[in-house]
């Protein structure tokens, strides 16, 4: 064991000497490994950060949550021209499914409408996202209130002029959540009474956040936009009870809506039932493809880096032929020489890899400064992968030079090196 530690120490010293004595040659040899490791880890870190942000943005929703609408989350066998003609889901259909579908824990009807301006006296906030939902949305999204309450079923059904604010909106209009409750704000040119303020969440993916949004009963927005406005993009969101057979539940839900729409057995369903788990799987598939593409592109840099390491090791063997002959004449075995050069190759490659990791770390810090609350994360696992790949490249690149060095005849090596 001690002899291998000594070999490792000597190889490390040889590697450092190579860096010091042949700076340009070593730099050119390691630049491929550095760029390759930088590319691989940068891609892995970026994809991991993106995936983590997406998962965080939907963390309030259970993976079993179902979204019914005229669009599909992922690819579909139905031709584009056909599904583009599907009708939107309606509030009446939402009520029908909520009343007649068993095993529903909660269901909500939502509309997506353009951002609006919200005013209070002389204070005004522009471009505010409007959440037009029913009262059950509170349970489906697992919202957390800082002050007040969410609107109830009676207020939702009647379309009461009440509103729940995000934390940042409350701060900009009133200076804090406690000051907002009971005040009246103007949206759509109408007065709304503030009944609740959500807890601060922080910015989500692409800058969207509940902090900068407001929520009001969907029936208020229905009165303003009407039920035949295609731009409102209505959705029915259903959360099934825990422990039930999800496939059976979806089948029942599909059948109920088909009956409501009067579809014949030979007609296709003119709506899509999207499960959030399917969306999560779709995201995994996309991020997996991005990782593979990034690894393939980065592999070319690593290939160049590997040839660079092999080249510097062949030169190192040539320069130390005399020393190898002396070591062998003093009793050094072939495996001692072999491990000496292998360790040196691995150490050189790891140095290049560590430089690449350091560059990724610097880039991640800079990127986080320019992307707000989006966190570009360099995880310990990615750092381990980068170091391991570096070592593997060094091992593969150094194996042939190390074998050639270990097989040198001591007499010929001394004569050649003189």
From TrEMBL:
It is found in: Cell membrane. Keywords: Cell membrane, Membrane, Transmembrane, Transmembrane helix. Residues 296-410 form the ABC3 transporter permease C-terminal domain. GO terms for cellular component: plasma membrane. The chain crosses the membrane at residues 27-47, 292-315, 336-363, 383-405. Its main location: membrane. One of its GO terms (molecular function) is transmembrane transporter activity. InterPro entries: ABC3_permease_C, MacB_PCD, Macrolide_Exporter_MacB. Residues 26-255 form the MacB-like periplasmic core domain. It is a multi-pass membrane protein. This is ABC transporter permease. It comes from Aequorivita vitellina.
């Amino acid at each position: 064991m001690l002899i291998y530690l000594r070999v490792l120490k000597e190889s490390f010293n040889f590697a450092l000497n190579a860096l010091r004595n042949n700076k340009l040659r070593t730099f050119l040899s390691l630049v491929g490994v550095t760029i390759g490791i930088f590319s691989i880890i940068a891609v892995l870190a970026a994809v991991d950060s993106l995936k983590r942000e997406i998962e965080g943005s939907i963390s309030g929703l259970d993976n079993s949550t179902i979204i019914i609408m005229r669009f599909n989350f992922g690819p579909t066998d139905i031709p584009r021209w056909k599904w583009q003609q599907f009708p939107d889901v309606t509030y009446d259909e939402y009520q029908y499914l909520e009343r007649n579908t068993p095993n529903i824990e909660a269901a909500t009807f939502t509309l997506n409408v353009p951002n609006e301006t919200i005013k209070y006296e002389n204070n005004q906030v522009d471009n505010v996202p409007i959440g037009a939902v029913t009262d059950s949305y509170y349970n489906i999204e697992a919202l957390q209130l800082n002050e007040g309450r969410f609107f109830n079923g009676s207020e939702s059904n009647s379309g009461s002029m009440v509103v729940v604010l995000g934390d940042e909106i409350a701060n900009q209009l009133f200076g804090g959540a406690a000051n907002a409750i009971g005040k009246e704000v103007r949206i759509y040119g109408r007065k709304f009474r503030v009944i609740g303020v959500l807890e601060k969440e922080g910015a989500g993916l692409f800058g969207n956040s509940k902090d900068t949004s407001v929520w009001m009963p969907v029936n208020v927005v229905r009165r303003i936009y009407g039920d035949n406005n295609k731009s409102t993009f209505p959705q029915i969101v259903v959360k099934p009870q825990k422990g039930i057979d999800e496939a059976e539940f979806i089948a029942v839900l599909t059948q109920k809506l088909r009956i409501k729409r009067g579809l014949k057995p030979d007609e296709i369903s003119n709506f899509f039932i999207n499960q959030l788990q399917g969306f999560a799987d779709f995201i995994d598939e996309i991020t997996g493809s991005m990782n593979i593409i990034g690894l393939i592109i980065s592999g070319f840099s690593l290939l160049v880096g590997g040839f660079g390491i092999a080249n510097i090791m062949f030169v190192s063997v040539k320069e130390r032929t005399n020393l190898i002959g002396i070591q062998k004449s003093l009793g050094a075995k072939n495996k001692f020489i072999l491990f000496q050069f292998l360790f040196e190759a691995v150490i050189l490659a790891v140095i290049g890899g560590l430089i690449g990791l350091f560059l990724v770390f610097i880039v991640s810090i800079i990127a986080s400064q320019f992307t707000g609350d989006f966190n570009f994360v360099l995880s310990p696992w990615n750092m381990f992968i980068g170091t391991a790949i570096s070592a593997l490249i060094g091992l593969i690149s150094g194996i042939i030079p190390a074998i050639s060095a270990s097989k040198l005849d001591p007499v010929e090596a001394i004569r050649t090196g003189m």
